[in-house]
Design goal:
Two copies of one chain form a homodimer. With 226 residues, the first copy, chain A, is an alpha+beta fold. Chain A has a single domain, classed as 3-Layer(aba) Sandwich (Aminopeptidase). Helix content of chain A is 22%, strand content 30%. Chain A is built from five helices and eight strands, in the order βααββββαβαββα. Chain A has a six-stranded mixed β-sheet with strand order 3-1-2-4-5-6, sandwiched between helices. In chain A, helix 3 links the parallel strand 5 and strand 6. Chains A and B meet through helix 1, helix 2, strand 4, strand 5 and helix 3 of A and helix 1, helix 2, strand 4, strand 5 and helix 3 of B. Strand 8 of chain A pairs antiparallel with strand 6 of chain B, so a sheet runs across the interface.
């Protein structure tokens, strides 16, 4: 998908005086979504930990940078587990092959990101603000792959700015580009704001289906068959 | 996993008379689960169609043998979409590298399979009785892959004989073998028999989670971004 370039500055003409911005305190925040690589693992690990804290599920969190490095990025992008990183910057991003989507936000108050140093992206001036992890799934009725989104997360100070929608749209756009049949993910039934948001994005919330999970000792008990 | 060989015949000893089978009309049915290949697509297509009929969802069924052939079996087994085929036979199966699990059932009434000819497996004497389609998913908290089961189906005349459990156990056993963290699938909330069956197998039914699905025109609308 092409980049959404910032609007050009107004061009003065003899008939038209130079227009000052209506709000001189407006700040531009450049954002991009790009394909993650193994060098992003330290930031991805911190984001997953923040997600566990947010969901009050740190007792289930056992990922380490090493275990993420071993299990992610073993296949070409989109063929298996794939991560998109959301980055923000005070300056425009260079366009490169890993860029999926860019967008410029204009807002009145600068964002106070107290963790910007620890979320600096690979020593660059860009700050990691969120991520989405997804992988192919398959519909037998359609005989087509789709994408399943396992996690979508935006750091707290960057929320309510459309970044969640931007990450989800990036995955949906990639699915369309690849001719895939659907994009799926899960939501907690009491999270009515999220459900409303997803329905406004065009998703169906499938009320009758329940997820079954076999894990831990119950799963291990199936391992003795050999 | 190793094959569960049929029990040896009773060995007569001088102290012990030959014991006749308690029920002389008992029939042996040899069963195996094996990895599917692209040559199984005609049978897989018929099974998916039968599943659509059973679920009264034929209006959503658009898979063809050609579309299944194009989208399945493009990756080594277990790395992407993987199919296990359940076969039955009146004679023992030869053991080969594609065999995942075998089992011998003894039952009093022979199974009346009226579709046995159209479900004959690649011109052999074996009959295809069911399948399971699954693929890797990923837990960020565990930093481990798992398996997601998209479909599990047993043809009607082979139901209530433990084949569903056998297919599910085969996937769970494979997950354990690969060091994976979990196996997941979905069930309809009103299907209380299935829920009871899965819970008895050790699965948790996650009551709070709902699946969101973006498909059709709603998905296509995300494709114009460039």
């Amino acid at each position: 998908m092409a980049a959404a370039a910032p609007p050009p500055p107004p061009t003065p003409t003899p008939d038209q005086p130079i227009q000052l911005p209506s709000n001189p305190t407006t700040h531009s925040l450049f954002t991009r979504i790009r394909l993650a690589t193994i060098s992003d693992v330290p930031q991805i690990h911190k984001l997953i930990h923040q997600m566990a804290v947010f969901e009050r599920l740190t007792h289930l969190f056992s990922a380490t940078e090493s275990s993420l490095s071993t299990t992610l990025f073993n296949s070409p992008p989109f063929q298996s587990f794939t991560v998109f990183i959301l980055e923000v910057s005070q300056l425009p991003f260079p366009l490169d092959q890993t860029t999926i989507l860019t967008k410029t936000l204009n807002h009145e108050t600068p964002i106070n990101d107290q963790d910007s140093e620890i979320f600096r992206s690979n020593g660059s001036g860009f700050i990691v603000a969120g991520f989405v992890l997804f992988f192919p799934n398959y519909s037998t009725f359609l005989a087509k792959p789709g994408f399943y989104i396992e996690d979508i997360f935006v750091r707290e100070c960057y929320r309510r700015k459309g970044f969640g929608k931007m990450l989800l749209s990036a995955v949906a756009g990639q699915a369309v580009k690849m001719g895939y049949g659907r994009v799926e993910w899960c939501v907690l039934d009491w999270n009515v704001n999220a459900i409303k948001f997803y329905e406004e994005m065009g998703a169906d919330v499938m009320k009758e289906w329940r997820i079954c999970r076999l894990t831990g000792a119950a799963l291990e008990s199936y391992g003795y068959q050999g």
